[in-house]
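Predict the 3D structure for this chain.
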Amino acid sequence: MENFVNSLPSKNNIKATYESYKPVLSEIMTKIEEKLRKTIKLASNPTYKSRVKSFNSYYRKVLRLKSEEAEKSNFVELTDMMGIRVICAFLEDLSEVEQQIKDNFVVKEVEYKGAQQSFREFGYESVHVLVSIPKDCMPKKCELPLPDSLVCEIQIRTILQDAWAEVEHELIYKSEFTPFDMPLRRKLASMNASLTLADIIFQEIRDYQKKLQGEVEARRASFYEKADELTLANAGKKIETLEPKNINRVSPYVHGTIDDMILEAIQAHNHGDLDKAVEIYSIILSSEPTPPPPVLAVIHKHRGMAYFAQNNYTASLEDFRQSVVYDPNGYRSYYYIGIVLSIMNQHKEAIEAYSESIKINEYQSHAHFRRAVSYYKLGDFDSALKDLTNAQSLGLNDSETESLHAKLMEKFGMSM
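Done. Predicted structure below.
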C-alpha cells in the first residue's frame, strides 16, 4: 500500500512548480499577443482574449493525459498552458488569420475543432494553431528551464463561435455533465446549428456588400471620369454635340429582392446596359409597398448616375434632387447636382449645390475644387483661390489643380 501511495504524483509539488512558471508563461503569452496584434491585418479588427491555464485545469489534464510524466517531473508540459483567442467578425476572416499566423510564426500543428461533427451533435467550432515560441517573445531573464518544444495555442473563432464556446463551457464542461436527455441534447444541437447558420448568413451579406461596393466604385469612377471630361478638359464643348453610348437592348427584368435588383442594375450600368439599369431602378421606385426614404434616396441617386451616363442631364438632375429630398444629409447627391449644373453652365446654382455638400462634409477635396472652377467661371477669383487652396490642403494635387492655380495666378497678375 505504501509503495502504491508513493508512486502517485504529489499535487502540492506540481502546484508549487506550476505556479512558479506562471509568471514566465504569462510574459511569453503577452508578447505573442502583442506580436499577433501587430501582424494580423483584417478589414474588421479582431478582438483578443488570453489566459494562462489555471492550476486546477492544468492538474486535471495532467492526471488525465500525462500521469506517467507527472510521476517523473513536477513540471509537465501541455500544449494549451498558454492560450490566445483571436475573435473575428466573419467566417472568411478565419482562413485569413490562419494564413497570417503561418506567415509570421513557426506552426507546429493545426486542428479544426468541430469540423467532423454531424448536425445532431453539439460542440464548439474553432481553429487551434500551435506555434513555437519566437525568440523575440522569450523572457529576457528566466532562471527556470523552458522546454525546447514549448508552444502557445492560438484559437481562431468568429464572434458567434466564441459565444457558443463560452456558454457550452458553463453548461457542460464546468459542470462535468453531458446531457443524456434526448430533448435537451436536441435543443443544444439546434442552438449550435442556429449560430452556425447565422455565421453563414453574416458571411453571405458580407460577400454581397463587397460585390456591391466593387460595382459602385467602378460606376462612380466612370461617373467622375465623364464629369471631368465635360467640366474640365472639354469645358467649351456644347452638351448637345455629345452622343450617348450605344446601348444593347435587354429583356425585361425579372423581379427579385431590392438588394438583388440594385446589384443587377449597377452591374448593367458598368457593362454599358444603361437602359436596363434605368428600367430596374424605375421598377424599384414604383414598387409596392413604397420603399422607405433611405432606399428611395439611394435609388434616385443611382438612377441619376445612369441618366447622366446617357447624357440625359435633365432627368439626371431631377433624380439627384429627389435623392436629397429623401436624404437631406446626402452630401454626394448635392455634389452630383453641382456637377450636372456645372456641365449645364449654371455655375451660380452649381456653387449653391457644392456649398450644401461641403456644409454637410467639409472634407471633400473634389467638391472644393469643383466649386473653385465654378467661381473661376463666374470671375470670382478670390473665392476660387480660397477653394483651390482648401482642395490642395486636403490632398488634391494633380494636373487640373495646377492648371487652375496657374490661371488664377495669371488673373491676379493681370489685376495688379
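The chain has two domains: 2-178, 203-415.
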